[in-house]
Amino acid sequence: MTPTLPDILPVTPFVRPALGTVVVPGSKSLTNRAMLMAALCDTQVTLKGALLSEDTEIMAEALRRLGFGVDEDENSSEIRVRGKGGRVPATDAQLFTGLAGTAARFLTALCASARNGTFAVDGVPQMRTRPMRGLIDALRALGANIRCLGEEGFLPIEVRASGLRGGRVSIDARESSQMLSALLMVAPLADSAVTVVPEGKTRMPFVEMTRRQMAQFGIPYDAAAGEGFTVPKGSYVSPGTYPVEPDASAASYFAALPLAAGGSLGLSGLVPAGESLQGDIRFLEVLQSCGAEVAREREGVTVKVPRGAEAHGVDRDFSEFSDTFLTLAAVAPLLKGPTRITGIAHTRKQETDRVAGMAGELRRLGQEVLETEDCLEIHPRPLRTGQTIDTHGDHRFAMSFAVLGSRDVNGDGTPWLSIANPACCAKTFPGFFELLDQVRVKSSGA
Can the peptide bond before residue 156 be classed as cis, meaning omega within 30 degrees of 0? Predict the structure, then answer.
């Protein structure tokens, strides 16, 4: 169950260096993709180590409304999906996607691939401002009948399904690679092979994750993509059980904790770049650039900031792993010298305007911040205490600033920073604050 949290939560700092090992939940991105692919298999798939959170529950409930069997077991972190062999059983469904971008885009594509039926897809008001046009236009080019019920290119939409034809189609996924991933995942259901050609610069790590995950479910991986991705007409094949990697984005908060509290922390089950499906694992390279030691262990990865070491600011392009830029930005006041973060313009259209929001919260804490459309440059200044962070309803603000609040700024273990609406973490990491507190208590020897 999601822990009950107050409206405003003071963060208790670490009085001793961090130590121990943490187990972060399964990847949201992998869990939601795996649920969709499992629904398209012909037999049951059991996802092990899956994430159970608001975003994945939204996806699970939508699949149930579409006629698929989905059972979740919070105690074992398992999700069991009974597929229908590429068929969408329901012919009429109202789907609510909340603020879950993956669910909104993936479900739109799934509904368009159905052979018949009328489906409505909507979300909260904030989701209605998130980009969908590239996906909608591409699905229409493959024969989908999609009507935007409000502003063109955004939710809410109505899909009158009659299947997708094959062929060549271009897609503008510059505002969100999820749109390209959604199209690729339903391409095997089309009447013939589909060649998908991205327009402009698309952030590819999550697309590569999708393609490699599709291969794990029996859809051939086209290594020589050329100018586009060709997906043959085919069937998803159940792997029986499917292990979900720990979430690299969620792991970034605990990976960065030694920068705030010092010490050494193990991240169980996490694997470095080259082994992981997740592009966000590259945040570990950023930590190394800051001066942290990152070591591959038998059970996962360990991040260490040696006693007396002084971490320093960096200049990094986050375009390929932007979900983690807030983590670095929040701890930048603790680093020696400026930190410059680029490649983040697209994050202005996520759960909130993450660039402007981060700049505002850092200034609230007394920091000098230079903001452009695509960049934040943070010059450390003495931290202004007694402040409450506005999370803007965004889970990543809450978790990032909780890491900063773990620094014992007052020198006596008293809280100096509070988080408003900490419960927004339930979107992807319901137990975050509980786990952070467990690490703090263990590290203190209490």
Answer: yes
